[in-house]
Amino acid sequence: MTKKNKKCGYAAVLGRPNVGKSTLINQIIQQKLSIVSHKPQTTRHQILAIHTTDRGQLIFIDTPGIHNQKGTALNKHLNQTAQSSSFGVDVVLFLVEAMKWTDEDKRAAKVACRSDGKKILVINKVDKVKHKEQLLTFVQTILNEFEFDAIHYISALKNKQITPLEDSVFDYLPEGEPIFDEDQVSDRSTQFFVSELIREQLMLRFHQELPYSTSVSIEQYEVKGVIHHIHAIIWVERKNQKGIVIGRQGEALKQIGVKSRKEIEQFIGARVNLKLWVKVQSSWTDDAKAIDALGYQDTFKD
Ligand SMILES: Nc1nc2c(ncn2[C@@H]2O[C@H](COP(=O)(O)OP(=O)(O)OP(=O)(O)O)[C@@H](O)[C@H]2O)c(=O)[nH]1
Questions:
Q1: Rounded CA gap, 56 and 53, in Å?
Q2: Family, per the entry (predicted)?
Q3: Which domains are delineated in the chain?
């Protein structure tokens, strides 16, 4: 009996905002690496999520959703990041939401289909569809315009049909030795995830009031004994947003702090002492330099 050679390669996950890209990646790698909230465009960074199994290593590139809105430097940067990640990968997973095919989806599909990798059409949120036979006409509409190598119907949230999708991705990967250590799950630092976990709590609580431009930076990260001491700044654009985040007598910020601390403790598996500040940096989303300064310059496979 011959032993099967290991596989190793890159898969980009593309689709318009809110189709479930982060949920899918988190489900496959069984860890909360990419933040998920019901506000579109919660994902701002490319994250290499690394999934190592007996079959080999699958390296995911999560992308900010491709969208149509024009405008700020941050928006442009988000779109560029998403577009560049479809090149040089072995597989593209193009996600759509079942029964929703919008102009934004079309635009994202164009980017996905320009890739030279294998293309998988992933119909997500199938759990929301009552009459499953309607999916066939829905998919046909997409296939009239775009070509894919495979189609999968899944529910990322309910963990349905994820294994067959994963098998399909592995089939398309080239043979090769792992690039990252077996126990490495991301190329991002703990500090990065800490700031994302805080940002997730902000988005969950203030999704009506705060723009997705709200960002979090870690000012201090110190491990003393068994406790991780973390100081973080929440950057907002306007004074009134600062007031919202702090809340009456600091109540809102306190709750954000408690919830974030619990999430961070779960993520790093240690006790955390978290201190939060809120600062105003006016309209940095329109300032390309400020975007660089806050670390939104991602490079892919340099
Ligand atoms: N019902 C249902 N909801 C889902 C499913 N997958 C994701 N969602 C929800 O859809 C919303 C968006 O999911 P995300 O994973 O953040 O979507 P995304 O594509 O990464 O979004 P961006 O970061 O904005 O690009 C969340 O509220 C998820 O819980 C699914 O299979 N079924």
A1: 5
A2: Belongs to the TRAFAC class TrmE-Era-EngA-EngB-Septin-like GTPase superfamily. Era GTPase family.
A3: 7-172 (3.40.50.300), 190-293 (3.30.300.20)
Ligand 1 centroid to 273 CA: how many Å? 30
In whole angstroms, give the CA distance from residue 27 to residue 22: 8
- Quick check: 150 and 123 in contact, CB under 8 A? no
Q: Which atom of ligand 1 is nearest to the CA of 63?
A: 25
Give the residue among 117, 95, 213, 101 at the shortest CA–CA distance from 165: 95
Strand partners, 11: 60, 91
Q: What is the mean pLDDT of residues 32-36?
A: 59
**pLDDT per residue over 85-143, tens digit each?**
566 789 999 999 999 999 999 999 998 998 889 999 999 999 999 999 999 999 999 99
Using DSSP, state whether 224 is helix, strand or coil: strand
- Tell me, in angstroms, the distance from the centre of ligand 1 to residue 223's CA: 34
